[in-house]
Specification:
The complex is a heterodimer of chains A (376) and B (194). With 376 residues, chain A is an alpha/beta fold. Chain A has helices spanning 21-29, 65-77, 96-105, 115-126, 141-154, 171-179, 212-217, 246-259, 277-290, 302-305, 312-326, and strands at 6-15, 18-19, 36-37, 50-52, 86-90, 133-136, 160-167, 200-201, 203-211, 224-233, 266-270, 298-299, 328-329, 351-352, 357-364, 368-375. Chain A is built from eleven helices and 16 strands. In chain A, the strands form three sheets. In chain A, strands 1, 2, 5, 6, 7, 9, 10, 11, 12, 15 and 16 form an eleven-stranded mixed sheet that branches. In chain A, strands 3-4-8 form a three-stranded mixed sheet. Chain A has a two-stranded antiparallel ribbon with strand order 13-14. The N and C termini of chain B lie far apart (34 Å). The chains are: A alpha/beta (376), B alpha+beta (194).
């Protein structure tokens, strides 16, 4: 079957490191955390007081946190977005702060937090008139959306898709993750022997995907190809992953098959790596099953900028493009004492990329898993 | 008690819940109900449910509707499921409001509790994909699961995506769920119609 080779031709993001890809990349390579004390709301009753928050981002009456994150991005980039692009918005709870305000202050309207309304705003920011769609798949939302976009291009249904992702740290999600006992009281330490939970984070970003033929014809520089993608379900538990990593293994195998690549071609794995005991252990079991003959370098960026929920997959895809470009695999920030299960796979130091393929994995509530295979 | 009423004809298998009735479209079966407890008991008795749905009392309303309509749809399609058995079947869902009702339930409860401690049993339903996940867990569906909301033609968009997944031989079948405040329906797409 002929392939349409979906490629990424533009991207940008805002994370707790600040605006831009460079700020995040430099932060990761300098092994510094962007996780800080939350002042947006009281964290006194929660299991943690820290998150990867964007400095200066505060609740406002006239704009949700998501809008404050997205609007500046598109002020900078809207002119680059082709008008025929289909926009896909990936988020878990979008403008949930509008609902918070309605409940806490009795002002505003909780219904304004519906995802379709944020999609309309995104279309406006990007200058797009197409109908667009929302994809919400827990913490695998944006990796699912990128895979879906790649599938639309691959099948010939579309030749240009804009994937936009956003999620913000709010009292709503912070209290919820705290209720699940999922937060590390200090900061997340993915794959560490002493890991004790995740740190929440926030961010927004976009990737513009295009059919390779069109990208070349229009003179776009190609940042990478989305060669494989897959989504799977553990069908196991609402908040805990399959202990054996069965669902993740399935999505990795399907994504590699879609890419037509053997597992031996993978040079690095951008892991979900939340820092919870069960997630990181589940991932290692999946990696041991898929990469039975060798240890592939693994990294997680969530100890550096927090778990950005629905935006995580997109932010990690943008970083994976940098990994391919710079041929450097970042260290796992926050990791000091490597869990024996991950020994030989993860590192406290940056490493060189010696192959041409990066595998990105995400997982989420309800047992969902999503995998992307990225190559130059 | 179930009755035979061919009130929702269609070429593909479909499970549905509307008001105080639920049913299977192809088989023309309908069950009236007044409460979920008696409905699930009846569906167990009639072998629509292969085994009791764990934590069903904890489910939010959307998860109850989605899980039951999905079970009815599988029965309508003649696809058996069993506890512990996983199948390469996916599930896609759409609704216009995301998780708005459950978001309000969680956060109003949090506020009523003194704004100090959220309750996990409410928080886990604050994602639009949570009802799909509950259905996937009960039915053992390991294929792709995604909540999608296409601004226009939401059902057709899901149906087309489901067809593509089957055509590409990524899954054996897809459940496509469409919910509104009035009704939930789950259609089954297999290779026959993809």
């Amino acid at each position: 079957m002929s392939r349409m080779n979906p490629v990424i031709v533009a991207c940008d993001m805002t994370t707790a490191y600040g605006e831009g890809i460079g700020a995040c990349w430099d932060g990761l390579l300098s092994n510094t955390r962007a996780i800080r004390k939350v002042t947006r709301f009281s964290t006194q009753s929660f299991h943690s007081s820290k998150a990867g928050i964007v400095e200066g981002l505060q609740y406002k009456q006239d704009a949700s946190l998501a809008v404050q994150l997205l609007e500046p991005l598109f002020r900078k980039h809207a002119a680059k977005i082709p008008p025929d692009a289909l926009v896909i918005l990936a988020t878990t709870v979008g403008e949930i702060d509008l609902l918070e305000r309605s409940v806490l202050e009795g002002t505003g309207n909780a219904e304004l937090s519906r995802p379709a309304l944020l999609l309309d705003k995104v279309k406006g920011f990007a200058g797009l008139e197409d109908d667009g769609m929302v994809i919400s798949n827990a913490c695998a939302s944006s990796s699912t959306a990128i895979g879906f976009a790649a599938g639309l291009i691959d099948s010939g249904n579309r030749d240009c898709v804009l994937v936009v992702a956003v999620d913000a740290v709010t009292e709503f999600v912070f209290s919820g993750f705290s209720s699940l006992m999922a937060l590390d009281p200090d900061t997340a330490k993915p794959f560490d022997k002493n890991r004790a939970g995740l740190s929440l984070g926030e961010g927004a970003g976009f990737v513009l995907l295009m059919k390779r033929e069109r990208a070349e014809k229009e003179g776009h520089s190609i940042m990478g190809e989305v060669a494989g993608w897959a989504v799977s379900e553990d069908a196991n538990h609402m908040t805990g992953p399959s202990r054996e990593g069965v669902g993740l293994r399935l999505s990795i195998q399907k994504a590699l098959k879609k890419a037509g690549l053997p597992s031996g071609e993978v040079g690095a794995i951008s892991s979900h790596g939340t820092g919870t005991v069960y997630n990181d252990s589940m991932e290692m079991k999946a990696y041991n099953a898929v990469f039975a003959d060798r240890m592939v370098p693994i990294y997680s960026i969530k100890g550096a900028l927090g778990h950005t929920m629905g935006a995580a997959g997109l932010i990690e895809t943008v970083i994976a493009l940098e990994v391919l470009k710079k041929r450097i695999i970042p260290s796992t920030v926050g990791l000091t004492d490597i869990d024996p299960e991950a020994a030989g796979w993860v590192s406290c130091e940056k490493r060189s990329l010696d192959k041409q393929v990066v595998l990105i994995n995400n997982a989420g509530f309800g047992g969902v898993n999503a995998s992307l295979v990225i190559k130059p | 008690m179930r009755t035979n009423q061919q009130d929702r004809p269609g070429k593909e298998a479909c499970g549905w819940i509307k008001g105080d009735h639920c049913g299977c479209a192809l088989k023309g079966l309908t069950w009236p109900f007044t409460e979920f407890k008696t409905l699930t008991a009846q569906l167990l008795h009639d072998h629509i449910l292969a085994y009791p749905i764990e934590n069903f009392a904890r489910f939010d309303e959307a998860s109850r509707h989605v899980t039951l309509s999905a079970a009815l749809a599988l029965y309508d399609a003649g696809i058996a499921y069993a506890k512990g058995k996983k199948q390469n079947i996916g599930i896609l869902g759409t609704n216009p409001d995301g998780a708005l009702i459950s978001n309000l339930a969680y956060f109003e409860d949090y506020l009523a509790g003194g704004r100090t401690l959220g309750r996990a049993k409410f928080f886990i339903y604050t994602l639009p994909s949570s009802p799909l996940a509950e259905a996937a867990i009960h039915l053992g569906l390991q294929g792709p699961m995604t909540y999608m909301l296409a601004a226009k033609t939401p059902r057709e968009t899901l149906w087309a995506h489901a067809g593509l997944l089957i055509k590409n031989e990524e899954v054996e079948a897809m459940l496509v769920i469409s919910s509104t405040s009035e009704a939930t329906e789950c259609r089954v797409l297999t290779g026959e119609y993809a």
